[in-house]
Each structure stands twice: as C-alpha cells, then as structure tokens.
Amino acid sequence: MIEPTLRLERRLLKEEFDLIVALDEVGRGALAGPVAVGAAVMDAAGSRRRVPEGLRDSKLITERRRPQMALRAADWVRASAVGWASAAEIDEVGIMRALGLAASRAVQEAIEAAGAAERVLVLLDGNLDYISPVHPAPLTVRTVVKGDRDCASVSAASVIAKVARDTLMTDLHPEHPAYRWDRNKGYASAEHRRAIGELGLTPLHRSSWAIIAPTTLF
To answer: 66-76 vs 152-172: helix axis angle to the nearest 10?
Structure first.
C-alpha cells in the first residue's frame, strides 16, 4: 500500500510558500446531506514532523479507526477546518459550485485559525480547481491527482472531512430512520433507494438530482 508523504509539501514550503492549505471533499456522490470539504494547514515546521502512523486517504482507513485518526490528524497539522454546502445549495447552484462554496468556507476558517500569512498555496485533491471561481479573493491553487493518496496533508484533510460528515449523517438518522443514514451516510445503498421509492424524498435529499426512477409507461 502506498503511504502518503510530505515530499511535495516540504519542497513547496521551502521554495515558495509560507502555508499550505490542503483540501479534500467528501459527499459529492451522495443522494442526501451536505457536501463537505476538509482543510488541513501545513507550515514549514509542521512539514518536518513525522506523518502519523496509519494516516491514509480516508477510503483506505476502516470506519472503526477513522475517528481516532481524524483526531490525530487534527493535532498534527497547524490548523484544520471543515466547510459545508447544504443539499439546498447543491440544488440551487449545482454540485461543482457547491463544492467551491464548501472549499472556500473551509479555507477561510482554516487560515483564520492558523494565522495570517503572505504566501499561501491551496493544495486541492483532483484535477479541477473548483474553488477559485467562487472564492472572494484571488488564490494560488495547485491541483494534485491522487493527492489524498500521495500527499499527507491532503490525507489529513480527507479523514477529517470524512469523519465530520459521517458523524453528521449519523446524527441526522433519527429524524428519518427509514433511510438508514447511520449505515449508508446518505449514499445510494439498496436500502436507501428502497426507502426513497416507498416514502419519497426528505428536505435533506438533493431533489434536483434524478434520484427517483422515472415511471414506466409501457
């Protein structure tokens, strides 16, 4: 298994930047609930610290181990935050702009917690810069394909966001227990789709999406 490193972050912090704000999203493909973007702030001093043992992209960490790893990741980085965009915002502006809103909120909160710096880089998992079009001020953004796998700061953002969103969906489960968000976290499991077919959508579903199968005419 590939272990994430700080190789890229160390080089960038040594040569070009004072702070790196690493970002990763969770919940993009869910049918219900918000999308979340985790932010983890790394500085030069932090980049010299050892990566927490077992830190990975959140998808590679078991659900049982994620909460403890999220706590360790948050303690390891200079600052962290989670930005959100609601299902209603996703319906209003579309998923990519909603991701940008969540990312912008995460960056603003994380930089405020970390303290001002002149040279800040946003390190964004993936190949698409969805934050720049909506952020209120110019940003220097670098996208990194498989960043959550290869870059330890992005891995930290990944697990912090995943645990925050999973906790939220579990907390929302008692309001709509038939949909079993405690198990599926709003994603398209068979039991979730079955409940939608029987009961329809809740206000927390992304109603602009083609969630309910069209009626068969013939």
So the answer is: 130
Q: Which of 3.30.460.10, 3.20.20.70, 3.40.250.10, 3.30.420.10 is the CATH number of 7-172?
A: 3.30.420.10
The pLDDT-based confidence of 116 (bands split at 50, 70, 90) is confident
User: Other CB atoms closer than 10 Å to residue 68's CB: what's the count?
Assistant: 13
Q: Please give the annotated binding residues for a divalent metal cation, written as ranges.
A: 24-25, 125
Annotated binding-site residue numbers:
24-25, 125
- SS3 category, 184: helix
Banded pLDDT at 215 (limits 50, 70, 90): very low
DSSP state letter for 80 = E
CA dihedral in degrees (96, 100, 105, 108; nearest 10)?
A: 170
What is the predicted pLDDT for the residue at 150?
A: 95
